[in-house]
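--- STAGE predict ---
source: upstream dedup step, 1 unique chain passed
mode: sequence only
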Amino acid sequence: MSIIDNALKANRNYAKRHDPKLGQRPAPKIAVVTCMDPRLSNLPEILGVPQADIDVIRTGGPAVTEDVLGELVVSTRVLGTKETMLLNHTGCGFTTFTDAELNAKLVAATGVPSSAPMRFFSFKDPVQNTREQINKVRSHPWIAKEIPVRGFVFDVETGLLSEIEAAPQTTAN
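--- STAGE serialize ---
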């Protein structure tokens, strides 16, 4: 049986004990933008926050793209989250390549060039990436300034979070 077939079988068992209250409109308290890395899948335990209180936005890197910004606007303006946490981690696969390298590798592997180079949002330093992501979120005009936006790096070896301060914003004269 495939993994998906096993998942469907497990789902039928889950449905027997599913809590219908989960069908109610979500009311999370915190939006967490984190990486798609499966090591960050157990956020309720990592953060000590109930699953229902977390609006999880997963993305590679975790890059704050236009899509992620839109999800944060909905999370804060529609769902009512009161805080935003940006959660990078050590050992991220997105630090192991550059966008140009991966584009070249994919063209070589498939023999098909992309009509435009894909943007994968690779980076080298999770601390610097976190700072940049904080500033992207903070600078969006539709994300209320009273919503705290804080960034962290999760150490995959120790399980500890380290808070990262935002990079100072530069102003044009």
